[in-house]
């Protein structure tokens, strides 16, 4: 909004030229998100506490968690508002990539909000029935997948390049080659600069798996004070940087990546999301005054997954979101092994509870997982050149 209102005045004053820079608007979105979190976070927490919208704690979990019984939940509302308003203020909504990420975040957040409402307000033990939740997540994946197939990222495309047969394409990286482009159904392959994996119509399936898997993985990670918030912030910042580089023709060509026009606006979203996470962490750090609930965890998962999708680095998500992957795998391994043998692999799943039951203090588990997330993010960024 501010871009359209103020940037046209750049000829009258050089100051307004700032609104044309993505970095300036991303910084503005970050500060705005933090300000909104600080201004309204306390009020939202008091509202939740007054209406007794509190968290139910598992009786079979670590005993130290029993004192968290009744802590206000649905705090993801703070994150959603703190992301949505700054993006509308500072972003350019004519960017398909930005719209995809914003819609995915809000869509997943609303699914989480309905789940939280049913659990803590209507006191339905299981909340939103699993198949209904999964239906909403899959529906978003299908919509986003088709949306991206119908809007190729390169402006030179004259028709859709979508086939039913997956293939591998080698791009021309010679000095005489023109700008590297990516087709509608393609994704990049980490560590291989000249290979593009063309999935054809099955690209929709990949998008569906990424959005559904990421949102549920972040949800599983949300079990300790500040854990999901901090790890999500690191992942969002990583994909935000990637979006900025790929949206800039010179940077993209230097790194020999496909230039994705308009995807740089996702960096503004990343700024807002990081600011929202920092503001929420003010209240969510140990001991937490509020939990994000499914409202926040599904929204953040939708944001991370969609950022991987619009930057066409879906496969890199396994490395960037390695902590989320480990959390999800620990649950699958635990459930699968227990059903076959009646024995547990971990003391408790997700795996962060395993380390708690080994005697690690909650804050130590959280900080060490943050450190691992930072290491994985740096490794992911290093793949820009190690190819």
Q: What does this protein structure show overall?
A:
The chain is mainly alpha-helical and 387 residues long. It has one domain (17-312). Helices cover 60% and strands 4% of the residues. The protein is built from 14 helices and three strands. The chain has helices at 2-6, 22-50, 76-90, 96-121, 130-150, 203-221, 227-247, 249-255, 266-284, 293-310, 317-320, 322-341, 351-357, 362-382, and strands at residues 167-170, 186-189, 192-198. The chain has a three-stranded antiparallel β-sheet with strand order 1-3-2, with no helix packed on it. The radius of gyration is 21 Å and the shape is globular.
Short description:
The protein has 387 residues and is mostly helical.
* Radius of gyration, CA atoms, in whole angstroms: 21 Å
Number of strands: 3
Which stretches are low in confidence, meaning pLDDT under 50 for 5 or more residues running?
155-160
First and last CA, distance: 39 Å
Structural class: mainly alpha
State the helix count: 14
Strand content: under 5%
Describe how the helices and strands are arranged.
Elements: H1 2-6, H2 22-50, H3 76-90, H4 96-121, H5 130-150, E1 167-170, E2 186-189, E3 192-198, H6 203-221, H7 227-247, H8 249-255, H9 266-284, H10 293-310, H11 317-320, H12 322-341, H13 351-357, H14 362-382
Antiparallel strand pairs: 1-3, 2-3
Helix pairs in contact: 2-3, 2-9, 3-4, 3-9, 3-10, 4-5, 4-10, 5-6, 6-10, 6-12, 7-9, 7-10, 7-14
């Amino acid at each position: 909004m501010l871009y359209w209102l103020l940037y046209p005045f750049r000829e009258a004053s050089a100051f307004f030229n700032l609104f044309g820079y993505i970095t300036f608007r991303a910084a503005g979105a970050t500060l705005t998100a933090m300000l909104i979190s600080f201004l309204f976070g306390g009020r939202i927490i008091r509202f939740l506490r007054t209406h007794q919208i509190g968290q139910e704690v598992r009786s079979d979990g670590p005993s130290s968690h029993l004192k968290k019984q009744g802590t206000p939940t649905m705090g993801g509302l703070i994150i959603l508002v703190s992301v949505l308003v700054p993006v509308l203020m500072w972003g350019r909504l004519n960017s398909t990539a930005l719209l995809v990420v914003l819609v995915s975040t809000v869509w997943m957040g609303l699914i989480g909000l309905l789940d939280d409402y049913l659990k803590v307000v209507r006191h339905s033990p299981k909340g939103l029935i699993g198949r209904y939740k999964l239906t909403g997540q899959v529906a978003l994946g299908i919509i986003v997948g088709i949306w991206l197939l119908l809007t190729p990222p390169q402006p030179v495309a004259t028709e859709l390049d979508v086939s039913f047969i997956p293939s591998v394409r080698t791009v021309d990286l010679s000095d005489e080659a023109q700008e590297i482009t990516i087709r509608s159904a393609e994704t990049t392959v980490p560590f291989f600069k000249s290979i593009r994996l063309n999935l054809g119509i099955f690209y929709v399936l990949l998008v569906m798996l990424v959005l559904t898997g990421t949102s549920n993985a972040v949800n599983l990670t949300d079990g300790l004070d500040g854990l999901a918030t901090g790890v999500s912030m690191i992942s969002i910042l990583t994909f935000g940087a990637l979006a900025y580089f790929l949206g800039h023709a010179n940077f993209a060509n230097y790194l020999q990546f496909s230039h994705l026009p308009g995807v740089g606006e996702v960096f503004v979203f990343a700024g807002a999301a990081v600011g929202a996470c920092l503001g929420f962490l003010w209240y969510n750090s140990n001991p937490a005054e509020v939990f994000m609930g499914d409202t926040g965890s599904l929204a953040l998962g939708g944001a991370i997954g969609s950022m991987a999708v619009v930057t066409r680095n879906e496969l890199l998500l396994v490395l960037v979101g390695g902590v989320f992957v480990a959390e999800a795998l620990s649950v699958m391994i635990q459930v699968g092994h227990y059903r076959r043998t009646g024995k547990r692999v971990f003391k408790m799943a997700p795996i962060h509870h395993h380390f708690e039951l080994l005697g690690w203090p909650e804050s130590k588990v959280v900080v060490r997982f943050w450190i691992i997330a930072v290491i994985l993010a740096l490794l992911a960024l290093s793949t820009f050149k190690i190819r």
